[in-house]
Amino acid sequence: MSFFTITLLAIGLSFDTFAVSITCGIARKHIVFWEAFRVAVVFAFFQSTMPLLGWGFGLAIKSVIEPIDHWLALALLCLIGIKMIVEAFGREETNSALDPLNPKVLFTLALATSIDAFAVGIGFVAVKVNMLHAYLIIGSVTFLVAMLGMLFGKSIGSVLGKRMEIIGGLILIGLGLKIVIEHVG
């Protein structure tokens, strides 16, 4: 998988984080740089570690999934993308009890926004991926997205949250189609 493709994947995965970070910025309008930095580091760690864990799991079951690996990657990415799009339409924005500086809240948000990345990691078994590059790119993109989301949340509110999840879902679906086209073609 190329640097560009991994970067697109990282952007698609980080839209959940962006939406949650906007909400964090709305909830903590006076969040200072080091607090936002800490929140972004936790999001980035979870988002980059989950694909690694999924990849390890996928390797363990590789012989079973190898004949259908490209279809599995398509299915996982499409399911995640569709889930993101559906959730964007079905969720109401709330932020009254959100305190991203509370460790329990922060770890729950980080885990919730990175669960989909585990499934993507399983899909990595189907394609040649340098996991160190993927880990670093996904972590870096997520960190930047989280920082930007909190900044936007402080300044523009929750106007973009749902739209960003829809775009992220479409990117993931597109990547799944790209994997199948490359494998079949």
Task: Look at the structure and give the CATH class.
Answer: Mainly Alpha
Radius of gyration (CA) equals: 16 Å
Look at the helices and sheets and give the structural class. mainly alpha
Straight-line N-to-C gap: 16 Å
The percent range for strand residues is under 5%
Task: Could you tell me the CATH topology label.
Answer: Growth Hormone, Chain: A
Helix tally equals 8
* Total number of beta strands: 0
CATH architectural category: Up-down Bundle
Which descriptor suits the 3D outline? Answer: elongated
Helix and strand succession?
Answer: HHHHHHHH
Task: Describe it.
With 185 residues, this protein is mostly helical. Helix content is 81%, strand content 0%. It has helices at residues 3-13, 15-27, 33-60, 62-65, 69-90, 103-124, 131-156, 161-184. The radius of gyration is 16 Å and the shape is elongated. The protein starts with a helix and ends with a helix.
Condensed summary:
By secondary structure, the chain is an all-alpha fold.
Task: Compile the SSE list and pairings.
Blueprint: H1 3-13, H2 15-27, H3 33-60, H4 62-65, H5 69-90, H6 103-124, H7 131-156, H8 161-184
Helix pairs in contact: 1-7, 1-8, 2-7, 2-8, 3-6, 3-7, 5-6, 5-8
